[in-house]
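Quick one from the shared queue. A colleague (R.T.) flagged LYR motif-containing protein 5 as missing a structural entry in our internal table.

Convert sequence to structure tokens.
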Amino acid sequence: MSAPTRQRVIALYKQLTYLGREYPAGADYFHQKLKSAFLKNKDLTHPDEIQKRIDLGDYVCKEIEAMYHINKYRAMKKRYYEDATEESIQSKLENTDWANGSSKK
């Protein structure tokens, strides 16, 4: 493995370790999976195969970041829209006259 590739693999491992701190299943679970994935591929020597694995790692980083953004958005939405409870939605549905397309008053 060349020096730039080695540095990229180490940087990817560090980035994934950092992203795994907030993983929903737990940081220990994520770290175990991460370590086993890297150890499984430690004997790769072909540059194309190594690059495929690096690209896959970059994709995983993007997916984890997207998951965190979605969770953050859902938490923020839950804080600001607590009024929209199931009961209020149900009462709105019950007060609607579906045949005439209007609401009962």
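The first strand starts at residue 96 and ends at 97.
The CA atoms of residues 4 and 10 lie 10 Å apart.
Added to the table.
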